[in-house]
Amino acid sequence: MTWWKRLFGRTTGRSLDGTMFRVAGTLYSRDGRRAVELREFSNGETYLLESEWVEGDVFRDRHGGRLVGPFTSPDHAEQFIVGTPWFNGTE
């Protein structure tokens, strides 16, 4: 099974359930239709929660609420998301 992990990368099987986090910030696209919450967990990893505007002040979680990451810091997560076609509205 070790060869499988080497071939397909690290799989930790760790869960974030019950892990404390703080919201390091929320980013909005220029048109306001996409929002990203930067969540910094107590284990040192940062994840993104992406959402899209529905109507009024209602946003719906993207990817069924699954987090995107991990990133080494909120800064790295921000650099990643602002460069994506989805966040820039070109997808």
UniProtKB/TrEMBL annotation:
<protein>
    <submittedName>
        <fullName>Uncharacterized protein</fullName>
    </submittedName>
</protein>
